[in-house]
Design goal:
Distance between the termini: 24 Å
CATH class of the largest domain: Mainly Beta
Oligomer: single chain
Mean pLDDT: 83
Number of strands: 10
Low-confidence stretches: 1-15, 174-178
CATH topology of the largest domain: Jelly Rolls
Number of domains: 2
Helix content: 40-55%
CATH superfamily of the largest domain: Jelly Rolls
CATH architecture of the largest domain: Sandwich
Strand content: 15-25%
Shape: globular
């Protein structure tokens, strides 16, 4: 993360009129926008150079859309579907009817590792529980009137990027399920996308993977690992990232624990100890020194 979205490049693709923009909210490096389109409205994004500053976009529309990339065959996106557009392709979007469209602009650096397993150039994704959750969360962010803080900006940025990553993982199971290595990669991607959720654990992961807990444990055991251990490790990583982030300095240890998926500060301390680390307070003080 940490890449600032170029608002002019993302919010104003060619063909988009300023009056089509209803609302825009920035959450550090992620930008959320809401638009009203008339039937026949057409947007076009030219391919962006791979310069480390490009953004991908997730479109969620209440109207049907037609999407084409690099002059390929157009794809039909029914109302309510999610449309993921990569930054390195010429992309054209046409509104079939009149209505609202939400856009989420995410730094490509947060998503690029999943590109090899995604089919084609543009991706129309059917609604799923995680996709519906992203839609509801994005809608609430665009309609709420409270002023965000620097801390909430960072946390919302991270959550939105991980939700988009999780939606993309769900969208490519036919590739990610190919072989044991592919399945464990998918499990690790899901854990990373949901690690901040306090109620997410091995049972929920097995459900997301469409396998039993025993099968999941055997999958990780083949690499001399265990899902609970790996989930604890990446939550510890997240906690340490938050501790080292100057914008999160006002957060107490209990708040760091809550935002990292731990039930409480004691759970965070135990996880640090199992990882061979000093207490969270000592780690935080050392990071500030």
């Amino acid at each position: 993360m940490g890449i600032v979205v170029d608002t002019r490049a993302t919010m104003l693709p060619r063909g988009m009129r300023q009056e089509q923009l209803d609302v825009a909210r920035r959450f550090h490096g992620v930008l959320a926008t809401g638009h009203t389109l008339q039937a026949g409205a057409e947007w076009w994004w030219p391919a962006r150079p791979a310069d480390g500053e490009e953004s991908a976009v997730m479109l969620i529309a209440e109207i049907p859309l037609t999407i084409s990339c690099d002059d390929g065959a157009p794809q039909q996106a029914p109302p309510g579907s999610l449309c993921f557009l990569r930054p390195h392709h010429d992309t054209r979007v046409i509104a079939i009817g009149a209505g609202a469209v939400m856009c989420l602009w995410v730094p490509w650096s947060a998503l690029s590792e999943i590109e090899p397993v995604l089919p084609g150039t543009g991706l129309v994704i059917a609604p799923s529980p995680l996709g519906l959750g992203l839609q509801a969360f994005l809608s609430s962010l665009l309609t709420q009137h409270t002023e965000p803080t620097v801390i909430t900006d960072r946390l919302v940025e991270r959550l939105l990027a991980e939700m988009v990553f999780g939606v993309l993982v769900e969208a490519a199971p036919h590739v990610l399920h190919d072989g044991e290595a592919g399945r464990i990669d998918r499990a690790r991607s899901i854990m990373r996308a949901r690690r901040a959720e306090r109620d997410f654990g091995v049972v929920a992961l097995a459900h997301d993977m469409h396998m039993s807990v025993r099968q999941l444990q055997r999958l990780f055991a083949a690499e001399d690992s265990a899902p609970a251990e790996e989930l604890r490790r990446i939550r510890v990583e997240l906690a340490r990232e938050l501790m080292s982030d100057a914008d999160c300095a006002p957060l107490g240890i209990a708040e760091i624990a809550a935002h990292s998926g731990f039930p409480d500060a004691a759970g965070l301390r135990r996880a640090f100890a199992r990882s061979g680390l000093p207490s969270p307070r000592i780690v935080r003080r050392a990071g500030r020194a």
